[in-house]
Amino acid sequence: MPSETATSIAGTLHDWFADAARPLPWRAADVSPWAVLVSEFMLQQTQVARVLPRWEAWITRWPTPARLAAEPPSEAVRAWDRLGYPRRALWLHRAAAEIVERHGGEVPHDLEALLALQGVGPYTARAVAAFAFGLRHPVVDTNTRRVIARAVAGQAEAAPPSVARDLAAMGAMLPADAGEARVFNAATMELGATVCTARTPRCDECPISSQCAWRAAGYPAYTGARKAVQARFEGSDRQVRGLVMRELRAAHRPVSRAELERTWPDTAQLDRAIAGLLADGLAVSDGDDAFGLPQS
DNA sequence: AAACCGTGGGT
DNA sequence: TACCCAAGGTT
């Protein structure tokens, strides 16, 4: 049972969302659950602007899980292009196969079944259940966590993530009606993404500024635990993996280790990257010192 | 459970 | 310019 404060915030956000929501294509009424699932995979740690063109191309080419599962994983990895974290492309391909095998080609509604799909975790499972099927589940992403931290807890930043705590916090605020709950989930994320942003929040444009505990407290600085800082990307193994994957995507034939050395001369680091990609199934050896994308 | 996993937008 | 950080998931 949501508190009066939560009910009040939900009502305000509902009205705000009605005209402030960006017209994102995966929010259209006629998109399939599969198209929603694809969008959620792509949006993991990746901004909307970068996802839009890849999503359009993907669902045009593969409008159903079966159509994707019928092609080799290499095609999924190529279509993923430079979205980043290419394991997601592999996982989405695998999830499509699982949907065909276990669910007759239809994206399952059930939370447990969704969570069992490769690459689907607590966020993605609830996002699909809520946004594609209208089921009443709390959906918590990084935006939601920041909005709750500020508006409800009065803190500048969210504490390090805790699935159980974060879901409980959002669950306690969730409207009882499933339709209202879906809007509340989406509106809270939207507010965090466009107004209550991490770096420079636009509090003067915020629809719930009068109800915001952080604002009421005078915008105190964050004093809690900080999340770990991301390692430097330049010169990292991640960068090398990315460069190797770019070569493998572009070459529609095996690429020799000698060729890869031209993109990254540090052979120890290159070998580490290749070994990692082989272990992840993003690359396969041709048995003769050359590498390609997985064909099956 | 802390660390790892890409790429680029925003400031 | 550098640096932060982004609709997370897996091991």
From TrEMBL:
Entries under Gene3D superfamilies matching the protein: Helix-hairpin-Helix base-excision DNA repair enzymes (C-terminal), Hypothetical protein, domain 2
GO molecular function: 4 iron, 4 sulfur cluster binding; 8-oxo-7,8-dihydroguanine DNA N-glycosylase activity; adenine/guanine mispair binding; metal ion binding; oxidized purine DNA binding; purine-specific mismatch base pair DNA N-glycosylase activity
Species per Swiss-Prot/TrEMBL record: Agromyces albus
Required cofactor names: [4Fe-4S] cluster
InterPro entries per the UniProt record, alphabetical: DNA_glycosylase (IPR011257), Endonuclease3_FeS-loop_motif (IPR003651), HhH-GPD_domain (IPR003265), HhH_base_excis_C (IPR023170), HhH_motif (IPR000445), MIG/MutY (IPR044298)
Protein name in UniProt: Adenine DNA glycosylase
UniProt KW keywords: 4Fe-4S, DNA damage, DNA repair, Glycosidase, Hydrolase, Iron, Iron-sulfur, Metal-binding
Transmembrane regions: none
Lineage, broadest ranks: Bacteria, Bacillati, Actinomycetota, Actinomycetes, Micrococcales
Any one of the GO BP annotations: mismatch repair
Limits of the HhH-GPD domain: 42-194
Coiled coil: none
Pfam families per the UniProt record, alphabetical: EndIII_4Fe-2S, HHH, HhH-GPD
